[in-house]
């Protein structure tokens, strides 16, 4: 092979993987459920949960409950509008199913955990008819303390109820930036796996570039281009006693 072939191989391999990628069918076994996606900031739904939403939205009712406006830079009102547009792009049917909370007890902050009882209070108010609550796991994908707070509040909410709690698995940094190359390892690890094909990945990228315009700083391009969370999600059901 010529040196140009060797040079192009790292670029061609991911493209080949996308071409061969069997996406999770958009009508999986789960249907006709109400699923509440619990997030901390507008854009969490697009950056982390897109493959799950794109797979489940056609056959289930998806609600998005976002517990802050992401107002750290004073853009709260803009970000609320952006979240609604993104959620609709990812399959949420009714804008009324996107709720954004602005409560001083839950600031958008890297250093302020949110009290589980406050998170549970909002779930009780807005997710009372949910069959499933979906949120971050104990590592919160990015380690953001607000993400982790959601899990503790969700556990408190589902305890003693018939509501399932699903958490999005956090993977290490190498896998995090392995895009489509992480699909095989994810499927092998088990759990509930949602995979987007190339069209789904482009939809997720558009939810960021066309809807979350205020968040599209240079470093986001690395995430939407390389992150496996734009391609694949694996979700675990938590047993809460
Ligand atoms: Zn976040």
Specify the CATH homologous superfamily: LmbE-like
Q: Main beta sheet: strand number and arrangement? A: 7 strands, mixed
Domain tally: 1
Query: Could you say which structural class the secondary elements and strand pairing correspond to?
Result: alpha/beta
CATH topology: Rossmann fold
Fraction of residues in helices? 40-55%
| Unreliable sequence segments | none
CATH architecture: 3-Layer(aba) Sandwich
CATH class bucket? Alpha Beta
**Separate helix tally:** 11
- The total beta strand count reads 7
Strand order within the widest beta sheet? 3-2-1-4-5-7-6
Mean pLDDT over the residues: 90
Order of helices and strands: HEHHEHEHEHHEHHEHHE
Please provide a written account of the structure:
It is a single chain. This protein is of the alpha/beta class and 241 residues long. It has a single domain, classed as Rossmann fold (3-Layer(aba) Sandwich), CATH 3.40.50. It contains eleven helices and seven strands. The protein has helices spanning 3-20, 44-48, 50-56, 76-89, 116-126, 140-143, 145-158, 173-176, 183-189, 198-211, 218-226; strands spanning 34-39, 61-66, 98-100, 132-136, 164-168, 192-195, 232-238. It has a seven-stranded mixed sheet, sandwiched between helices. Strand 2 (61-66), helix 4 and strand 3 (98-100) form a beta-alpha-beta unit. The protein is globular. The chain starts with a helix and ends with a strand. Bound molecules: zinc ion. Zinc ion (ZN) binds at residues 40-41, 44, 144, 147. Zinc ion (ZN) binds next to loops.
């Amino acid at each position: 092979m010529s040196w140009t072939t060797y040079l192009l191989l790292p670029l061609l391999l991911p493209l080949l993987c996308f071409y061969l990628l069997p996406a999770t069918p958009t009508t999986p076994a789960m249907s006709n459920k109400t699923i509440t996606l619990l997030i901390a900031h507008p854009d969490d739904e697009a950056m982390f949960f897109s493959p799950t939403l794109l797979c489940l939205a056609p056959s289930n009712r998806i609600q998005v409950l976002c517990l802050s406006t992401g107002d750290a830079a004073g853009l709260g009102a803009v970000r609320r509008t952006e979240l609604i547009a993104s959620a609709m792009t990812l399959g949420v049917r009714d804008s009324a199913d996107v709720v954004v909370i602005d409560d001083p007890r839950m600031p958008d902050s890297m250093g302020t955990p949110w009290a589980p009882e406050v998170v549970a209070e909002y779930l009780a108010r807005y997710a009372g008819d949910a069959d499933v609550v979906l949120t971050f796991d104990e590592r919160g994908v990015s380690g953001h303390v607000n993400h982790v707070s959601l899990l503790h509040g969700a556990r408190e909410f589902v305890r003693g109820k018939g509501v399932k709690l699903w958490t999005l698995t956090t993977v290490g940094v190498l896998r995090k930036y392995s895009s489509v190359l992480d699909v095989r390892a994810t499927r092998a690890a088990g759990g509930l796996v949602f995979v987007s094909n190339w069209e789904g990945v482009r939809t997720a990228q558009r939810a960021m570039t066309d809807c979350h315009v205020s968040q599209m700083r240079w470093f986001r391009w690395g995430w939407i281009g390389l992150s496996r969370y734009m391609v694949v999600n694996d979700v675990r059901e938590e047993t809460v006693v």
